[in-house]
Amino acid sequence: MQFIPRVEIEENHRLHPGFWQPYELARAFDWQGALAANETFFQQPNLRKDPFFPVYLSYFGLMKVMSGEKSGLLYCIDAAKQDSLQAGLFANLSLAELQLRNRKAAVQALDYGLRLNSKSAALKLISFHLGRRRKPMFSFFSRDHVVNRWMGKLTYYKATA
C-alpha cells in the first residue's frame, strides 16, 4: 500500500514552510524528487529545535522507505521515540513497516497510534487496508455467536451513521 498520510496536526500553519515541497512531491509519488527536496530542507539552521522536528523526520523516513532505502525505517522509529504522543508518527511508522513486509511491527505501531487517537483518518485507513477485524463485543462468546454478530452489526451501523 503506497500512500503518504495527510498531516494530522491541528497547527498545520505552524509547520516550517520548507516542509511542504517534499511533502507534496511525495504525495505525487515522486520519491527521488521528495528526497532531494528533503535533503535541502534538512540543511536549514535550527531545524532540530523546531517543535515539529519529529514530524519532518518521520515523513523523511517514510519517503526513504518508499523509495527503497531500508534505512528510512530508523528515522521513523527515532521520530516516534522523540514524540510518542502524535498518532500521525505511528501511521508513518506503520506504513514503513508494511513496505518492508514486517506486518507484526506494523500492527503494533498501528495499535499504539489508535490508542493515542482513535479518530485518526490515516490510522483507520491503514487498519482497513490491513483487513483487521474488530474484537468481538463479548469475548466469552465465540465470534460467530448470534449475540456478538448482532452487537457488532448494531455498533457498526451506529458508527457509520
Structure description:
It is built from eight helices and no strands. It is mainly alpha-helical and 161 residues long. It is elongated and about 60 Å long. The mean pLDDT is 88.
What is the third-level CATH name, the topology of the largest domain? Answer: Serine Threonine Protein Phosphatase 5, Tetratricopeptide repeat
Give the proportion of residues in helices: 55-70%
Low-pLDDT stretches are: none
Largest sheet: none
CATH architectural category of the largest domain: Alpha Horseshoe
- Which word captures the global form? elongated
Number of helices: 8
The CATH class of the largest domain is Mainly Alpha
- Binned strand content: under 5%
The number of distinct β-strands equals 0
Distance between the termini: 27 Å
What average pLDDT do the residues reach? Answer: 88
In CATH, the homologous superfamily of the largest domain goes by the name Tetratricopeptide repeat domain
Task: State the secondary-structure class.
Answer: mainly alpha
- Number of structural units classed as domains: 2
* SSE sequence, one letter per element: HHHHHHHH
- As a whole number of angstroms, the C-alpha radius of gyration is 18 Å
